[in-house]
Amino acid sequence: MSRALILSTLCLAVLPACSAEESDTSLTQVADVPATPVLAAPVAMENEQIHRLMQLKEGMYSGALPVGDAAFAELAALGIKTIVCVDGARPDLEAAARHGLSYIHVPIGYDGIDRDTSNAFARVAQEVEGPLYFHCHHGKHRGPAAAAIALRAATGCTTQEALAVLEVAGTSRDYPGLWRDVAGWTPPTADEVLPELHEVAQVADFTASMATLDRDWDELKALRASSWQTPEAHPDLDLRRSVKAFAEHYADSANVIPAEHATDVVLLDQMQAGLQMAEKLQLLVEEASNPPTAAQIPALEEAFLELKASCKDCHKDYRNE
Ligand code: HEC
Fold first, then answer.
1. What is the distance in A from the centroid of ligand 1 to the CA of 162?
2. How many C-beta atoms surround the C-beta of residue 146 within 10 A?
3. Chain center to CA of 231
4. Each residue of 106-153: pLDDT tens digit?
5. Whose CA is closest to 110, among 161, 195, 179, 204?
6. Whose CA is nearest to atom 13 of ligand 1?
7. 24 C-alpha to ligand 1 centroid (Å)
8. Residue 153 · residue 125 · CB < 8 Å
9. How far is the C-alpha of 73 from the C-alpha of 66, rounded, in Å?
């Protein structure tokens, strides 16, 4: 399944070129890809605020979702001017603005980067004020793939050099479309009109809902990792609250199945089964002591692993390729 970039009806004018008139006239030229030099290898950097930070070249970075003011401050300190979000969730424009940073939102799926979307990244590379920071949610798969395409557009680097970005990021081979589309990238041609860029793109309800579910899921993973108790590093997390939000957001997802899957009984069954597991986990947590005792933990573990397998199974069939 390929997800075309859905362009928002609102042009939010983050860029001078972000207007219908200009996009008709000035954006049809062939991308001016400089013939280039061998690039230095991408470098994975340790950073307390920004997980999976990687520098692709001077002025181009990728990594995980920046969360909270300290993370945006860190990006500003790195000199970043524009953040490019490829996740389905709405970017935190307000936090970015507090640190003088702009956002561009070009959501992509795990199944690959279609032509229009890769042209959006070429446009970002050519027109948007850098240094640039590309992020998805965890900074491992989609963000690096988008950044690798922008790197190709900005530098004319070799396929090998672009794929090195995915290697260094640890992008999974379970997403062959991302590898394929980074490897197969070609610059926009003279007759292609590059897509408009937006601060916030329109995202299908189901996709947005999955992105929300993933945040709850991360919270559950963090709680589980500290024996189902509030982790010291995250005193803000509370198991009962997280599990309740997770079950609610699971139900939200099940309510907005996209039209293309609406009659697919396999997917619908998987979704209902997943929802039941989410409700079961919620019930177990609510019936358990707070925090759960050692004797209560195995049942939580079992429910968690069941859920984990169900996310994975459905994605294998319906999302990743
Ligand atoms: C029954 C099928 C199904 C189940 C179960 C399911 N998903 Fe998904 N998920 C999908 C599909 C289909 C997509 C692709 C949607 C799209 O790109 O429009 C998706 C997309 C996603 C995305 C990408 C959102 C984005 O930014 O584009 C995340 C993250 C995600 N799912 C997390 C989860 C987690 C976590 C679970 C389990 C707790 C889960 N999903 C369970 C079908 C499922």
1. 27
2. 30
3. 25
4. 999 999 999 999 999 999 999 999 999 999 999 999 999 999 999 999
5. 179
6. 319
7. 35
8. yes
9. 10
